[in-house]
């Protein structure tokens, strides 16, 4: 099974938008009340072995809460139950060490509510518009930009800077896909050049992002001069949020278009195994051990995050999977310092960000192109492997290179 999300822009009436805000507000209240109840229980009863405060116990109390307050009962029960499930999952992630301690939800920050798939109904109106029936809200029009596929699991209505959206989470039958026989390509990710292929092609984020960034900084300066809590301050903040949302949509569109083009032309794509989270950590340090070159490191962190390396990798992985392709990862050490012509490793060969001139053989090439060739060859050297399926679903390290299994789970980032 493959899980996919289909997100659309809603076109609600003013009455429906008021109901959206009412639903989101009650869901936020239920979540925060349940969080406070768990905190109190932990402070007073953590040493007692009897009893346990979990989703089942809090769902029973939700029934009593709805019976006592009519304005809470006016909102459908499913989004409130889903909020309790979200809290239960947040605590599970906290105790497993995967996330921090759950925090209260704030008004206007990620306002959303969720229904189960069987509770909604979708109808197509024409070539451009469809409508969805949401319990206790009614039929809502949305711009149908692509057809839904698979079995509907759940539906989330959320508020972003440019309006309300609806996301359908679907489960799609994977089926058997024939192995992709298209050629392999190495891919180097960078800051000056977002992507460089071993074929010599450079791919860049749209230039319009730089224009939006300048407008956003100007809007942030305006917002900083407004009085906090005033209407003008809120208006200025909304303008900043709209610009940020627009930039995010442009990046996401570019990632999908570029990854689709690569997945359609190549059967195997080789990337460096980069720990993006570690690479973008702050360099401020502590009072006792202050960091060095903090401003330069902060600028590099912003540049890496703006390029969206990990997001592109995730999108590329599932597009390759749908076409029977492979996503492979190799050790990134010295890929930019190794000559792709003679194999000599010399850090002095990289004369600048863009120029690579080998000190041994004199080979001259664009530095990112040279790295992409080395990435591809490093994976080719690791192809002398008899096993092609590892049940654990984790990558194996072979001769300094990493190759993902044939059928890893969706979280592995390979042929998911």
In words, what does this structure look like?
25% of the residues are buried. The protein is of the alpha+beta class. The model is unreliable at 384-416 (pLDDT under 50). It has helices at 14-45, 55-68, 70-73, 77-95, 208-225, 231-265, 276-279, 294-307, 309-322, 367-381, and strands at 2-11, 112-116, 121-124, 129-134, 138-143, 151-160, 163-172, 184-189, 195-197, 202-203, 268-272, 326-330, 355-357, 364-366, 396-398, 401-403. It is built from 10 helices and 16 strands. Strand 15 (396-398) and strand 16 form a beta hairpin. Strands 2-6-7-1-5-4-3 form a 7-stranded antiparallel sheet. A 7-stranded mixed sheet has the order 10-9-8-11-12-16-15, with helices on both faces. Helix content is 41%, strand content 20%. The protein folds into 2 domains: 1-175, no CATH class; 184-207 and 243-412, Nucleotidyltransferase, domain 5. In the N-terminal section; belongs to the transposase 2 family.
